[in-house]
Amino acid sequence: MTPLQRYIAEEIAVDHADGLLNRREALRRLSLLGFGIPAAAALLAACASEDNAQPATSQPPSAATPSTPPGSGTAVPTTPITFAGPDNRELQGAWAAAAQPRGGVLVIHENKGLTDHIRSVTGRFAGAGYSALAVDLLSEKGGTAAFTDPAQATAELSKTPQEQFNADLRAGLDELGKRVPGKKLGATGFCFGGGLVWLLLASGPPPLAAATPFYGPFPENGDLSASKAAVLGIYAAADARVDATRPAAEAALGRAGNPHEMWVAPNADHAFFNDTGPRYAPEAATEAWRRVLDWYGTHLG
Question: pTM to 2 decimals?
């Protein structure tokens, strides 16, 4: 099992422990990842025990919290595009052009694929002045739209080699660079996509001036010495599983000498920025969006 596969499996187990998935559905999703019933049941039990040991830090949003997702008021509609990928493969994506781009942002989706939420975030970046491209990492399987069962999409992503993700994301950065020539590039990813931002930074010198991974697991023994990107890491106070990797990320950034900052959203859990999900935290999402735009304003333009 690769680290990304383990991450996806544990996310399913944590969702079950938090009451977001019933046992039958959690077992079904783990079976799609290749787990037998005994191994799946053991993982659910282990994550339930860990979850019960964590102090409750999440709070329900107050009546005064904003109801409009941050950045959505000025979002630009996205356009579906295709572009050349590695090994003569065609990649799908969502593109949003800023009227006068200050830079470009590669948006990396969660483990459900290129969803409407990710398209929305792509358009929000364009509305804030950063032309944005989201790559569909299920392009080789016909794209996210080819899957009627989100769990099947997640299972397919779990089977994809890490090297292919890196290659496809680098192709996305190449395409983005062509569309915003002469501009600096950044990368923002969420959950699984946040982990891919870290992997992209650790895999060699991609043309990134800045990156803002949202609650993405830092790879074991990750080495960022080849990257010069300024990194803003976004975490959540109640997301103990991913937050446990934050010290390693900070240490790697410190060794590389990269400008960096870590922000832990209080009273928020994993995936708090996703306004279509059950853990959406409006106040934390609004503050995170402000910090991301400030970061890109400083390091992209």
Answer: 0.93
